[in-house]
Amino acid sequence: MGFGPGGAWTDANPHNNAVEVVVVKQAMIAALVIGAVFLGACGGRQPAQQPAPPPAAEQPATPAPSSGGRTVQVKMSEFKYEAQPRGVPAGAVTFEIENAGTVEHDFIIQGVDKGTEQLRPGQKATLTVDLKPGTYTVVCNVAGHKEAGMTMELVVK
User: Considering the chain, what is the average pLDDT of its residues?
Assistant: First the structure.
């Protein structure tokens, strides 16, 4: 107790202020450390960089389209298929598939259990399947992609 700086009366003990400053600094440091741990554990995770596709000479060979069949161009990206056309006649159908996305995708025709391996971004594949009339669902079996809506309906007449 006494007169403090500037001549004002104060009840504060000058030695207590130094202790309070140290305690506040320690509390702030602890809060920052805890916050950094939670931020690191709960988010901010970037998807892993995907390796560049191999040169064309290193890509696996794919069978040539069968004669007399129908060809469907398919582009895969996050999280959709774009196909032209979506309706095809029954019989041999060749799918020319390209991963135009930034992560791996595959192309699986449910009901006939035919499809591609996972394709890296920029990679292409050809798949020829003998299809009977009906409606087929195409899905991406990469974890979480089907659940994110990466499906397509294919009508065979």
Answer: 77
Q: pLDDT of 80-111, one tens digit each?
A: 999 988 889 999 999 999 999 999 999 999 99
CA 157 to chain centre: 34
Report CA 121 to chain centroid distance, whole Å: 12
Q: What is the pTM of this model?
A: 0.57
Phi and psi for 26 in degrees, rounded to 5? -65, -40
Residue 116 CB neighbours (<10 A) = 23
Which amino acid, 106?
D
Q: Which helix (H) or strand (E) is 77 found in, with range?
A: strand 70-77
Beta carbons of 140 and 108 less than 8 angstroms apart = yes
Nearest to 53 by CA among 126, 122, 125: 122
